[in-house]
């Protein structure tokens, strides 16, 4: 009898005596080879036409003219694909194709200008600077933002996109976790004498999940394992299944929002010394990243190829015409095909598929970066455009950001300039965290699943939590804060304390979950600012309501932004400066506190008119 079976039987006897109660933007589809194969067939036909035309002396027929035309098209395609991207890399044309990246580096983000009709969208080319201090701010942004230049470094933490077979396994794991109540049954307050009972509950719940997964996947193999309780024989299956679920979650933060926590806590217990000794195998394996997969295939040099920037860039429609967008799409597709031919032309079909999968995985990361950083960029521009201390024509009380402790729930006292700097540095901090989110997530999993750093189950004042140190995430966060402080110079306001592994942020999972909410906080506010002018143009009744209640679109937009910049950054959200205030974690706590009181705001009906449904997103 195995150690696991013996432990389960002994635990069951103890429980019987004492009556212990038991208490997926779905990821993108995998790359389809049909388009590439079709293109290859067309190119072969064009080359065949060329050979036939060269051999024929008669050039008068329409058929030969068509063949010449087809041959020329084939030659032009080859010339473009072989030469254009090298020229782009050396002559700077890649910057033109990657307008979104270039715009972000130069401070030319999707912007807003104040007009009589409201805050309308425009494209700020950076020409309307108020003074030299603005130029310094732009330089700071360039210094802060590494952007996407070092693709090789980013690839170390970018999970590989799931294949079709892996998606089938993902659905199996997701279904198992959906019906599992692991944390409800395991994370309960116990005394020291009940520690053995909790370990038995952990084993029982873990074995239930493992057995269910295997039986659903392979009935015969599952039957044997369930009877013998020898889960170690299927170690590769379990490692692969759990790794697929973890990889999918990192790539798609909107997916598995409740199931991922159960999975990580289950694995956290499974790798602990006591439980792992009974299971006799390790269910955790490192995440498969683009960097590791390419280096295993001997293709690591592909990450340094200048064509990678074009092949993996995110194409944003902001401020572009349809022909411009279509041209960028074609350039991106040609870059992908060119890379595949260069690095997998003489290899097997599986290697070519791996190359494509890695390219599209980096592209997925570029899409994530755009979606998570753009809200911060837009909010920073609105702050600088409307409330910059040097740009304000007069000290209009309706435009001042000053807050006073004890008034309107604020727990900090800042004049306009100090509050402006405090909000600006907080938004820049959130942007930098979003930029490094994949790396932070990679490190967070390492901290959570470190058997040498056990957790303690404690009541933190917000319920029962697993309190565990996270030194890897802490070091990375410390470097982020230092970078933002350096960019802000002498304008840093507030505390730089990072809460991690205490009652405020119990563990790395809580940390990741908190900062993954930043786009969910900013996007609803930005949506109101963007859509309100167009809504008033379409609906005269809405326009009359806005003018009657707020004196106009511009006024209500400014009022919403002013209230957000004041009371989403006022130190509120707790009754002491350790739990909220101006610390790194407290800034986000204040923002969530503002979100929780949105129904009490006078402008809340405006949110509802623009389609607002909440800050939580979808589960």
TrEMBL record:
PANTHER family: UPF0652 PROTEIN C16A11.03C-RELATED, UPF0652 PROTEIN C22H10.08. Residues 132-148 have a biased composition (Acidic residues). It comes from the Eukaryota. Residues 1-46, 84-148 are annotated as: Disordered. Residues 121-131 have a biased composition (Basic and acidic residues). Signal peptide: none annotated. InterPro entries: E2_Ub-conjug_enz (IPR018553), E2_Ub-conjug_enz_C (IPR057668). Residues 154-617 form the Non-canonical E2 ubiquitin-conjugating enzyme C-terminal domain. This is UPF0652 protein.
